[in-house]
């Protein structure tokens, strides 16, 4: 078991991941902000899906997901078709234009990482991938965390018995932060949000 000092240092190092994500966000085309890039990335990785599933993978509210989906649909990067199993739901699909945009995002991300990690060995990159995968697996589905343990945007936990309006305001801040986080390479960090079925 690692020592407390090691975990404290790990927490400090993990906070620096934000700088990596910001750099990856800066290389995105102006017409494809991070939320749109996350939608394309998830559809490319997981295939066609319902809006509710996409919201779950993005770990944001359905209203936020709808805005991201509307943005990419307006640009012809995805199509929305009726779900044969449930006519009330829509299935999201990448279009050829969306696949081309996703390839461009991947190219830009790969070029940046190749440049920044040029002095890393193949073994070091493989080790980083393995450790980051294991780290994510260790956290599992963070949305299942009890609300009083979830950190808020200001670094404090909601007080048990706090007024409902305060908790809702915190969720809105958390959703807004999560909506900016996704990039083509780094997937969004799950947060606790309120969703409605598709």
Q: What order do the helices and strands follow?
A: HHHEHHEEHHH
| Spans where pLDDT lies below 50 across 5 or more residues | 144-183, 185-198
Mean pLDDT across the residues is 78
Within the largest sheet, what's the order of strands? 1-3-2
Percentage of residues in helical conformation: 55-70%
What is the number of beta strands?
3
Q: Describe it for me?
A:
By secondary structure, the protein is mainly α. The protein is built from 8 helices and 3 strands, in the order H-H-H-E-H-H-E-E-H-H-H. Helix content is 57%, strand content 9%. The protein has a 3-stranded antiparallel β-sheet with strand order 1-3-2. It is globular, with a radius of gyration of 18 Å. 24% of the residues are buried.
Give a summary of the structure in a few sentences.
The chain has 8 helices and 3 strands; from the N terminus they run αααβααββααα. The protein is mostly helical and 198 residues long. A hairpin with a 2-residue loop joins strand 2 (78-83) and strand 3 (86-94).
Features:
about 200 residues, mainly alpha, three-stranded antiparallel sheet, 3 strands, about 55% helix, globular, disordered C terminus
Which helices and strands occur, and which strands form pairs?
Layout: H1 4-15, H2 17-26, H3 34-46, E1 49-50, H4 51-58, H5 62-74, E2 78-83, E3 86-94, H6 96-116, H7 122-139, H8 164-180
Antiparallel strand pairs: 1-3, 2-3
Helix pairs in contact: 3-5, 3-6, 4-5
């Amino acid at each position: 078991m690692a020592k407390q000092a090691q975990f404290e240092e790990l927490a400090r190092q993990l906070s620096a991941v934000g700088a990596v994500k910001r750099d990856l966000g800066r290389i995105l085309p102006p017409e494809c902000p991070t939320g749109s890039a996350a939608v394309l990335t998830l559809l490319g990785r997981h295939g066609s899906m319902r809006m509710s599933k996409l919201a779950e993978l993005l770990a944001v509210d359905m209203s936020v997901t709808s805005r991201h989906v509307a943005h990419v649909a307006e640009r012809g990067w995805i199509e929305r078709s009726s779900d044969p199993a449930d006519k009330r739901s829509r299935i999201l699909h990448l279009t050829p234009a969306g696949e081309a945009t996703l390839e461009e995002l991947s190219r830009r991300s790969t070029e940046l990482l190749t440049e920044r990690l040029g002095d890393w060995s193949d073994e070091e990159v493989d080790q980083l991938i393995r450790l980051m995968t294991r780290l994510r697996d260790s956290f599992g589905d963070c949305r299942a965390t009890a609300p009083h343990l979830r950190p808020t945007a200001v670094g404090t936990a909601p007080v048990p018995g706090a007024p409902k309006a305060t908790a809702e305001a915190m969720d809105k801040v958390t959703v807004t932060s999560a909506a900016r986080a996704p990039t083509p390479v780094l997937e969004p960090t799950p947060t606790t949000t309120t969703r409605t079925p598709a």
